User: Fold Phosphoglycerate mutase from Metallosphaera sedula.
Amino acid sequence: MTIIIFIRHGQSTSNVGKILSHDVNNFPLTDEGREQAKKTAQELKRVRIDAIFTSPILRAYQTASIIGDELGIIPVIDERLRERWLGELNNKRFDPNDHWKLKIIRGQLEVKNLEPWDSLKRRMVEFVTSLKNEEVVVAVSHYDPIRAVIGHILDLDDISAHGISIPNASMTVIEFSSSPKILSIGSPVLSPSLLSKLDRYIIRA
Ligand SMILES: O=C(O)[C@@H](CO)OP(=O)(O)O
Assistant:
């Protein structure tokens, strides 16, 4: 069994500008995003962390570096954690009140080269199943890829998982075994109930 703590990167300039981007070297963390990452790092100090993996994309890598500095762990880049390939939506603004995904499902929008939901699920599950047993791993990724892990476990398609909220720098904790368990979704803190489930990994309650 492996415990994976998926962390969505801290707030970035792309989030503030409501821009979708799979670019690697654009859209850094904002000052708020750096503070969010530091707060999450303080939470993570409460459990034993064996490794940190991160998406190569700047906002995620910066988040992982802030956490790694606090925990004394050097983050390892893993391409499977990268942002969804957005095709012709890349670097485009989106309106959260008239979401592009709803437009697609209603046949009002077609997006060339958008990475399919099944591809997201496949690469995220490949990442999880490549991890060593009995490890506690931090994985810094993005909104859609983390939703895809939840979608895999709950057997939800992209739109059926649309309402899942994964705030910046939040923790989605998965106990991965032959029957995976979701221990938290988009949580800003490790709650006492969650810590009780991680009791053998706790350093400081
Ligand atoms: O832009 C967003 O809302 C999401 C989409 O997956 O990306 P990120 O988590 O990188 O902000």
Remarks:
- Residues 31-44 form the longest helix (14 residues).
- The mean pLDDT is 96.
- Residues 2-201 form a domain with the Rossmann fold fold (CATH 3.40.50.1240).
